[in-house]
Structure formats: structure tokens, C-alpha cells
Amino acid sequence: MKKKIIILLSVVIILLMGIVVWFNIPLDLMDLDPNEVMEIVVFNGNSGNATHITDKEQIQHIVENLNGVEVKRSKLSLGYMGYNFKVTIYLSDGNEAGDWNNFIINSDDTIRKDPFFYSVTKGNIDYSYIEGIVEITKIRSLEGLYYDNRANDSD
After folding, report:
1. Sequence-ordered strand ranges (E) for the chain
2. How far is CA 26 from CA 42, 62, 73, 121, 142, in A?
3. Rounded mean pLDDT of 106-114?
4. Does the predicted TM-score (pTM) go above 0.70?
5. Average pLDDT in the 46-64 region?
6. Cis amide leading into 115 (omega within 30)
7. How far apart (Å, rounded) are the C-alpha atoms in residues 101 and 155?
8. What percent of the chain is modeled with pLDDT above 70?
């Protein structure tokens, strides 16, 4: 009986150690060829607007930046709501990129991909670059509405 308890405790300890190691292993955020990316859609969780990025230079900057980022799990994200930017990457064949797709960027050093939050351990997410593209798109969209309304008012 005592021998069975020792074996059971040993198995539990080994499993717990394995979980701790797995939880703390750094991961590459992505490994994509920017030339294979057709579009990046950034959904702004604050405004509800989606920005479709198709400019090759912007895609290259974002993909190369994210390729250089390494992350590790920091805590569970279950039960958390709201976010800044949800990123979806579409490849040249029209399909979504695998693995690290549909992830949330909350800041320059925090990503959420359920069921975990991830902290950046190497590199930095160029959050301000993505934010700038989203803001410019928002301003252009508002300008378009303004000029459309002015044109309708003059009729």
C-alpha cells in the first residue's frame, strides 16, 4: 500500500513539473513570409470598426515585427472580456494563417490567445504602428461621411 502511494505521488509530481515547464516555455509568435500575406484585418474592440490592411509595405512591417516576437504564457484569459485589437491574417490563397491567427493585441507587450494571456519575452510588438494605421483609417472614414453628408445637404 505504501509503495502505491509513493508511486502515485511521484507520478503527480512529475506531471506537475511537466505542466510548469510547458507553461513557461517561450514560443515564437509567428513565422510567416510577408509575401504570402494578402491582408491583415484589425478589429478595434474599442470602436467596433475593422481596418483592412492590404498595403504591401504595411503588411511587411507588421509581419516582420511579429515574426521577431517571442512570448510565454502568463495567466489564464478565461472570463476576461474586451480588447484593443483583434488581428486576423489572410494568406495569398485566401485562407486564414494557421496557429497564431485571431489573436488579440492588448499592448506592446501583451497578447491574448484564449485560453491564455501571453507576455512578450523577446522583441516588442509595434503597437503604435498598428494603432496609427487604425486611427488613419478611422479619420478617413469619418472624412468620407462628412463629405457625403455635405454633398447630400447641398442637393
Report:
1. 27-28, 37-44, 50-53, 70-76, 85-91, 103-107, 110-113, 116-122
2. 25, 21, 8, 7, 41
3. 92
4. yes
5. 94
6. yes
7. 46
8. 89
